[in-house]
Amino acid sequence: MNMNKALLIILVFLMSAPTFAQKKSKEHLKKEASVKAYIWSEKTDFNSITIPSDLEDQSAVILYREVKYIYNRPHNSIEYTKIEHEQIKLLDQVAVKDFSEFKFQKTKHIEGLLNTFILGVKIIKPSGEEIEIDVDNEAIKEEDENKLAIPNLEKGDVLDYYFYSNIIVSENDLYQFDDVEDIVGEHYPILDFKFSLETEKDFFVSLNTYNNAPELETYKALSKESKTRLYGFTMQNVASNDFPRWFYPLVELPAYKFQVLFARTRKHEKKADAFMPKEVTTIKTNIKKEEIFNLYEDKFRPFGNLGDLERFLKDKDFTSEEEKVKEAFYFIRHKYFTNYVEAFVVDESKIMYPYGYYKNPIIFNSDEQFIKFFAAFLKDNKIDYEILIGTKRYNGPIKDLLIEDNVDFVLKILTENPLYIEHFNQFSTVNQIAPLLENSKAYALKVVDRKHIEDIQLTDLPASNHKINNTTESIAITLQEDFSGMQIKRVSATTGHNKIDAQKDRLNFYDYIYKDHEKYGTKPVLDKVKKEKDRLRYKKEYKSLIDKQKEKQLEELEKQTASEYDLEIEDYTFNVLNNGRFGVEDPLEFEEAFTLKEDLIRKAGKNYILLIGKLIGGQAHIDEEHKQRDNNIYMTYPRSYTNNISLIIPEGYSVQGLEKLNKNVENQTGGFSSEAVVTDNVLTIKTNKYYKNYFEPAANWPDMVAFLDEAYSFYDDKILLKKN
C-alpha cells in the first residue's frame, strides 16, 4: 500500500492556497488553537491498546478513525463542518516509508463562500513523547499539490492527524449540500470507527447505512426542547481491503450515504428537487417507489416547439415507427447541439460573436428539458413511451436509492422493437444507454395517453454483449529491407460501448460537424456572415485555428498510439474513415500509419527475432499477490478485442515458432484465443480476447486469471525469421 496515494484521497480537500501562502489572521490562529484543543484534548495510552494477533502481520493498523459532519446556522448564515481524525500505528519499515510523506492537492477558492481548512499532524512515540509537526513551515508548496514530510518516523510510532474543514454559506432560503457517499473501510484494518452527523432545525436529512454497516443510532433527537440532533454509529474491527481492479466498494463494503438540505420555510421545502423527509424531525432512510412517483409525476409533461422537427419530417416516408424515431433523434441532436458547436468555438476563440445568426435557438440544459421535448414529438406522432428511472450500478441497486443526484433517466419508446434514448451528446446514438445503467433494475413511469404519468413499476434495463462492444484492429506489417525497422498500417473499427472513449479520444469537432451540415442541409456559422469582407477575414482566422488544432490533435494521437505499444513511433499519420455516430453497430473507423524502429527486432546471427506479441498492445497483468481474490468482480460492460495481424515474410526467410502463437482458453467468464498460419508467404495472426459478463463472483476469479494470463503470455511471444 502506498500511503502517498491514500493520503492524496484523504486530504484532497484540505488546503487552500492562502493557508500556506499568506500570513494568518488572529481569528484563524484562534480557530486553529480551538480545533486542536477540541480534537487532541483527550490523551490516549496507545501502549494499552492491544493489536489482535491476526493483524500483527499488517504493515499498519488504524487504531481509531472518526468522521464527523456538522450542519448549523449561525446568525443568518448556513455552516458546514467536517472533521476527520485518524490514529495509525506503524508496525514495520514499509509503513514507516509509506507514511513519511503526505501529498495533498490544493483546493480552489469557492466563489461566494467563506472557507477554513486546518491540518494537524503529530507523532506519538512508544514512550508517550509527542512530536507535533509544524505544518505551515514544513509543507513544500508546488503548483498543483503540497507535500509534507514526516520526519523521525520509526516502527512502533503512532501517527495522529486530523483535518478540519468549515464552509459558511451566506444567507439562503433553500440550499442543497453535496451528497456524501463513503465506505467505512480502508486499505488498513480499523480497530475503532466512529461516524456522526449533527444538524439543527430546518436541515432535512436523508441518511442510511448499507452492506452490514451498523444501523444508525439516535444520540440526540430534534424536539421542541432540543434545537440540535445527533445521529451516528460505531464499528469495531473493520477489515482491510486492497481495492482491486474491477470492484465497486459501495456495493459490497460497509458504507453510509446521506444528503442534507436546508429549507427556511414550508414554501421553500416544496421547491426542493430532492428526496426529503416530510418532517424536519425525522430522518429519511429509504425511498419508496411511490415517493419517486410523486417527485417526478408532473415534471415530464410533453412540451416544446416542434416546428423545425416537423419541417424536417414532412413528406418523408418511413418504413416503421422505429425508423421515424431514430431520424427524429439524430435531427434533434444536430439541430440543437452540433449545429451550435462552431459557434461555441469561434466565440471562445474571439474570432467573432456568432449567436445573432441563430433564430430562437433551442438548447437543452437538462435531462428534463430534453425528455419533455422528445415526449412532445412522441405525443404528436401517437407513439407510446415510458420514462425509466435508474441508477448506475456502482451506486448499488435501485431499491437502495437515497440520493436524487444518483438518478438517471432513459426514454423507452414502445415501438415493435423497443428503443432506448438518453439525453444526447455529439456521439450519442439510439439504443446506447450509459453502460453502467445496463443490466440493472429500474423504475418505469407509466405514461397514459402519451401525456399523463399514472403509475410506476419495477422493470429491467437492457443489456449488451461482448460481440457488440468490440474493437477490431487490422495491422499490416512491412519490414524494412535491412531489418532496421518496420512500417505499420493499422485500421481500427470499434462498435458499441467500446467506441465511446475512442470517439472522445480520436475525434475533434471538425471530424463530424461538416458531415452533419451536409446531411441536414444547414450552413456553417461563417457562411451566415453577409458581408464578404468580414466573412473572408473570419474564415482565414478560423482556418488558422483549425490548422493548429489538427496539428495538436496529431501530436496527441501519436503519443497515445505510442503509449499503447510502449514504444517510440515515427512518421505518424491519421485519417478518419467513419465517425460512427448513427447507431450502436455503426463503427468508428480510422486508419493510422507509422514507423517502428528496431525495438521489436533482434538480430540472432543470420536470423532475426521478431517480438510479434507486442503488436496486440499492453495486456492486464495479474501478479502472484493478486491471483487470490475475496472481492467480487464488477465490469463496466461485456466487451471484446480482436487483432488481425499480417506480415509479409521477407524473401529468403521462413518463420519458426508458430506453435507458441496458437492458444485457446475459454470459460464462463470470457476467453483469449490466437491462431497463426502462413499462406503464400504471408504470416497471418488472429487474436480475440473477450469479457463475457457484467459481474463475476469471486469464485470465478481463477477462470478470469486463466485467460488474462494467456493474453499476457501472448504479449511476450516472439517468432524467428530464419535465413533459408
Count of strand segments = 36
The biggest sheet amounts to: 8 strands, mixed
Average pLDDT for all residues? 90
- The fraction of residues assigned to DSSP E strands is 25-35%
State the helical fraction. 10-25%
How many separate domains make up the residues? 4
**SS content category:** alpha+beta
CATH topology of the largest domain: Jelly Rolls
Verbal overview:
This protein is an alpha+beta fold and 724 residues long. It has 4 domains: 1-171, no CATH class; 172-284, no CATH class; 307-460, no CATH class; 470-509 and 540-723, Jelly Rolls (Sandwich), CATH 2.60.120.1130. It is 23% helix and 34% strand. The protein is built from 15 helices and 36 strands. The strands form 7 sheets. It has an 8-stranded mixed β-sheet with strand order 6-5-9-3-2-12-15-14. An 8-stranded mixed β-sheet has the order 25-26-24-23-30-34-33-32. Strands 10, 11, 13, 16 and 17 form a 5-stranded mixed β-sheet that branches. Strand 7 (139-141) and strand 8 (145-149) form a beta hairpin. Helix 9 (307-313) crosses helix 10 (321-348). It starts with a helix and ends with a strand. Mean pLDDT is 90; it is low at 1-21.
List keywords for this structure.
724 residues; alpha+beta; 4 domains; eight-stranded mixed β-sheet; 15 helices; disordered N terminus
